Amino acid sequence: MAKTIHNSWVTQRMANRLPLWSDARQYQHSVLQQYLNPIGSALEDLYQWSTNERKNLFLPSANMDMIDKVYALRLPSDFQFGTDPYSINAVRYMSPRCKGIIGTQEIWIATAENNSLDNMFYEALPTRVVDLDAYVDVDPVLEETYLSDLETTTPNTICWPSRLAITISDCTTFVDLSRREPFSFLILKGTTVRDLEETEAIIIPYNGTFLTRKIWKELTSLECYGLGPDTAIIQINCFGFNKDKETDKYQLYVDVATEKLLYHKLATRDFMEGTYSVHQHVTMIANTLGELYNGHDTIQVVKEVELLYGGQNLLLNDIAVQPFTGRLFAIDDSYLYVFDPYANAPSCVGIKDKTPGPMLTIKVQGEKYDYVRGETVAAEAYWRKPIERIYRNRWSIQKPDGTIVYIDIDGNEVPAEDAWIHNKTYTELVFGPFDSSGGEISRQSLSYALSQRGTYLLILETELANGTAEKDIVPIHVHYKEALTRLALPSSLQGARGIAFDADQKLWILKLATGSGYYDAGSAYATTDRAYRVHLAIDQMVVDFVNKVIFLHEKYDSVEVEEISDMMVEV
Amino acid sequence: MGRTFTLTPEAKNINNPLDHLGLLLGLPRLPDEGNSAYRRRLWDVYVRRASATERGLVNGITRELGLEQYQAVTISYVGSSSNYPRVVVQDVQVELYSNWNLLDESVDANVLEATIDIYSKDSSAYYLDGLVAAINNTSSFAATLADGVEGHTLSAAIINNDSRAWVENEEIRPLRRQKLENTNITPGTIRFSDNIVFNTQVATEAEVTSAGKFYVDYTSGTLVVYSIPRSYTTCRYMYDRLPLTLDASPVILHEFGSSYFRSKTFDQILQPDGSYEDGLPQHEAIAYINELLQAKGMLWGE
Fold first, then answer.
1. Does residue B80 fall inside a structural domain?
2. How many domains in chain B?
3. What mean pLDDT is predicted for residues A393-420?
4. Partner A contacted by B5 (CB < 8 A)
5. At which of A459, A478, A497 does a domain end?
6. Residues of B with Cβ-Cβ distance to A74 under 8 angstroms
7. pLDDT digits 0-9 by tens, B172-217
8. B128 and B258, same structural domain?
9. Nearest residue on chain A to B39, alpha-carbon basis
10. Who contacts A383 (Cβ-Cβ below 8 Å, separation ≥6)?
11. How many domains does chain A fold into?
């Protein structure tokens, strides 16, 4: 499922079976963790699959994007498929050229990867955004309301049957000690999409946005327990547009000692070129539920990833996680982007030159191996095995573009020979570090501003008194992510400000009404925010060469199928 | 250049886990039906149960055809608060009682304010907007069309309903004072499985002074009893559901066995005793009978 290589949280979970002092547990680029990572990734995929399969057992949680129907084109019995002239060992048929016609629109249809239905439904990226010409006005179901006023406030109409997005802010306590299970929760009553009067309790453990499990058509009453103070604010919306953060349903944040929930968050960062969007993986600082219930819900960023398309930074308006695939869908004013949810792992190829068990090792400050462009990495030399005298040592850095720079004791880039740091009195069992004038300094550290995207290698060379040379190498990664695809928004949806998936996993795009409203493409003057329903088309096909049938993902008015003779095949 | 063919795609369903649930529920996917629409129909199986009753048949047929029931009209009572109104939708007509009281057994106490024909084409209430207007013309009832419902919809699409509903088996908890599950209980209809604890009904709560006495506030559904009821005590009662929202279905079902329906589809012949008997079927009934005969080899009347 996951195509990019990433450091799986399962890997760290497995490594956490080791003693706390072991390197393999402490260090995510250790050889053991590299060895475990493919297994961890496979287990993570299995976890994702089994979670999804379990969801399919129940109607409210079932995947609505499951393969359900295809559109079949029955080719004439004398239809000829071209063969691949470069295929030597076997005859390989080539897919015909197909062009879908919808009204006056002509759309080329590509063959699905591996000519597989599975790929077409579960892996393929969308190729078109279709405005379904359907919209709703998105008035909040509950305007921003003080908790004290909650029970006397009547919720507004729900504009579209959906999982409601409940946003709580300014709460400082999330605990109701009068109860046996003392967490705070909100009780919703009303009519669900099943036309039944139902009740749902949502546990609220921290300030944030929470989605209901049930799909609501109408809310009649709301009650809250354990939330405080009364001046805390609650708001309920029909769609989860512009959510502050969104739970990552398939990944956890696992460090050497704790396991916590992980969230996706869209944020901005000031780069040299300007302010652009970044994708943050965030978690709570609080380690225990008790701390959370007491209102300690400050978040910390564990990874930050620059978002790019064609190497260019993007400034995005909103981000949403597609159910089941976990893919990130994002929009700016004119385009829809699709991103892989993971942060890529660094390339560890460079550490092959590392000396096994070097005496002088690199210790990255704060065990921070994940960076974003513009940040500064800090590391220090750590005399791990003081059993041999050190003659001299040297810091260097291999940049993602392959160039190597040498850093002197003052942090300046210098020629290779000038970067050596000598041990002042190496005949004694004393190790510096020393400054350029020979004075002893407290610590020998490296500080370097990261200006490129990709994997940097921090290299520490050491020459020992006995004449042997050692090298410690640590990879760190400056994260970036290229969009898997970019799709132009239809003209009617230009200026989009929000994006969300509804309970049927259909995509909705938000356009805001400015103070005086706006004219949308249909010239309707809008004075309220509107959500537009869109369809993500996948213009792909699968060819059954034996039975001469083509299966399409999308419905077209008609399809033009052109025979390709052998000579026309372009390879 | 090779030949070019212009072809029209045809939808082909592929089974997935939803179809497995559909098999369990006896509801196969319709041709070209997507997951979301199919999920809605599967949910509907549990909510609008299919059965051999008229409502059950409407539920089943509507769902199997991929159609949906909807809320059509809401009728409310605007007359005197001392009366006990009732609205009955019965086959081809809507009966509006401004007073209907089981406590008083005299027939005259039941005041039928209006009977509105919703079946005949010449009736002003043939369409829903006409029905709403006809109800609003009465002095005791008011009606509104539900949001999004087209006024030019056949009134006969409304499914039979009654503003008075029976609760057959409600459990009484071992409390001296409690609230029944429903309000606006029809006076005289409440009966208890334990006639020792619930022996004598009194008019006010203050009169519940000795064993066997109990009091029911019909409006709020509050029940007060002197002795604590035993476990598994149950009660049955009728309650009022006004304002009543009437459901409608694109599937319209009538029963030839119903005298209401036959009165609209057969000539009615006056008998010496003042009653009516069916005569020859009218044009519409003939069409129905021919349709039925076409579907299955049978003789009319057998």
1. yes
2. 4
3. 90
4. yes
5. A478
6. 7, 10
7. 999 999 999 998 898 888 999 999 999 999 999 999 999 999 999 9
8. yes
9. A59
10. A359, A360, A390, A431
11. 3
Interface test with A, best of B16, B23, B59, B182 (most A CBs within 10 A): B16
**Domain region containing B27:** 17-47
Which one of A474-488, A506-520, B277-291 scores highest in mean pLDDT?
A474-488
How are the residues of chain B apportioned to helix, strand and coil, as percentages rounded to the nearest 5? Answer: 25, 30, 45
Place of tokens 């499922």: A1
- CATH assignment at residue A434: 2.60.40.10
Record the tokens describing residue A91, joined without a space. 């005859």
Q: Touching check for B148 and chain A: CB below 8 Å?
A: no
The distance from CA B233 to its chain's CA centroid, rounded to whole angstroms, is: 28
User: For residue B3, which residues of chain A lie inside 8 Å, CB to CB?
Assistant: 562-563
Does A543 map to a domain?
yes
HEC-encoded secondary structure of A84-131: CCCCCCCCCECCCEEEEEECCEEEEEEECHHHCHHHHHHHCCCCEEEE
Please count the residue pairs, one from chain A and one from chain B, whose beta carbons lie less than 8 angstroms apart.
Answer: 109
Domain assignment present for residue B59? The answer is no
ipTM above 0.95, yes or no: no
Nearest C-alpha in A relative to B44: A194
- B239 pLDDT band, cuts 50/70/90, is very high
pLDDT digits (tens, 9 = 90+) for B269-300: 998 988 888 889 888 888 888 888 887 666 66
**Cβ–Cβ below 8 Å for B39 and A558:** no
- Residue matched to tokens 């008035």: A139
Nearest to A558 among B8, B12, B16 (CB): B8
- Report the pLDDT value the prediction gives residue A436, as an integer from 0 to 100: 53
Is residue A390 assigned to a domain?
yes
Nearest residue in chain A measured CA to CA from B46: A194
Q: Are residues B79 and B221 in the same domain?
A: no
Q: Report the residue of chain B nearest A565, measured CA to CA.
A: B2
- Report residue B103's pLDDT band, with 50, 70 and 90 as the boundaries: low
User: Are B207 and B88 found together in one domain?
Assistant: no
Looking at the structure, tell me whether residues B254 and B138 fall in a common domain: yes
- Selected residue of A65, A157, A195, A556 to mutate for chain B interface (largest B Cβ count, 10 A): A195
In a domain, B7, yes or no: no
Which residues does chain B have within 8 Å of residue A75's beta carbon, measured at their own beta carbons? 5, 7
Is the pLDDT score of B255 beyond 90?
no
**Token output for A300:** 């910390």
A295 pLDDT above the threshold of 50? yes
| Residue A366 structural domain | 349-478
**Residue finishing a domain among A478, A512, A528:** A478
**pLDDT tens digits for range A359-389:** 888 889 888 999 999 999 999 888 777 677 7
> What percent of chain B lies above the pLDDT cut of 70?
95
pTM for the whole structure = 0.85
Give the number of other Cβ atoms within 10 Å of residue B15's Cβ: 14
| CB of B18 less than 8 A from some CB of A | yes
Give the residue carrying structure tokens 């398939």. A250
Burial of residue B231 (CB within 10 Å: 0-12, 13-18, 19+) is: exposed
Nearest to A246 by CA among A292, A296, A280, A288: A280
Confirm or reject contact between B8 and chain A (CB < 8 A). Answer: yes
* Tokens describing residue B188: 């005289």
The per-residue pLDDT for B231 is 86
The reply to whether A354 and A420 lie within a common domain is: yes
CA distance A496 to chain B (A): 26
The answer to whether position B62 is within a domain reads no
* Residue A383 shares a structural domain with residue A471: yes
Q: How far is the first Cα of chain A from the last one, in angstroms, to the nearest whole number? A: 28
